[in-house]
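3.2 Worked example (two chains)
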Amino acid sequence: MDKLHPGVIDAIKPFLDYYEQLEGVSYGKAVFIFLSNAGGDLITQTALEFWRAGRKREDIQLKDLEPVLSVGVFNNKHSGLWRSGLIDRNLIDYFIPFLPLEYSHVKMCVRAELRARGAAVDEDVVTRVAEEMTFFPKDEKIYSDRGCKTVQSRLDIL
């Protein structure tokens, strides 16, 4: 969505709006999934606030992020949903956040990748790959900069 020119997404508004049928087709049970990086900074900020308050990432609930995300992407000129009628008319049912991954999650990704390759899980390898990843904020190093995206390539060079 963040790569889409603002306003283009409103072209599908008739398919999401409250109509019985559109050109003889009912879209009432259709599921549209829009992926976007817009709002990532808001998600990260909320996750950091939870962490700094001594709360776990797993304690973050949809109700903690959804209002912030909908307003944030609506007002973000680079979101693809900027000033979109989809948000303005409440046509998007849920904003599902992808939370940043912590060190323990990166280690789980390494283990899963090793298993997928049919290799034995060596905890020394798991730790070495996880420690090569970069984390933020710089001082605290809580969340992975790239999630698990580079785990495969890092295992390739071991």
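3.2.1 Second chain
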Amino acid sequence: MAESDTAPTIPKKCGPYISSVTSHGMNLMIRGIVLFFIGVLLALVLNLLQIQRNVTLFPPDVITCIFSSAWWVPPCCGTASAVIGLLYPCMDRHLGEPHKFKREWSSVMRCVAVFVGINHASAKVDFANNIQLSLTLAALSIGLWWTFDRSRSGFGLGIGIAFLATVVSQLLVYNGVYQYTSPDFLYVRSWLPCIFFAGGITVGNIGRQLAMYECKVIAEKSHQD
């Protein structure tokens, strides 16, 4: 047998630039920063919709942002977006169930558009009562998961995110940080968990797509080297 057939293949060593860019820590930080700014942008746009319909009321002395949102809302939403967006692909790897359903940016953008539409409906569409609105938004949120996710991990994380976010909102309203008009679920609106669920699915899809995109870039660079 030829010597070339038995000799082990030694991978080429990446240069310092390639190794730094493709390191796990660097990729994690870049994805976290991107997800943070996406969360900030969504918070500004969606909170503006809520304030315009007087669904969410902030005290006058804290309305300092250009979009009439309390200053702490965008950073908090950005941080939550980064955590959720990094958690989804991590959970997929931990469970050994890589998410492959509709994995392209066009699908992610449609998911974002549907989420914004659901939030817009909660602020703009008039229903006879809050029960009808809550049931409608619940159906739309589950439809968003079925259309753009369909994974058990995505559904479970969405439920967990909705529960935790609703509890945090209840505590904030209880302590007078802000308030909801016509609360019907303790201190908040009954449809709020539906918005949190849909938001978790949406940000999770963005995080998964960023993770998959960076994996492709790393693989292509490794192949070239």
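3.3 Remarks
The first strand starts at residue 56 and ends at 57.
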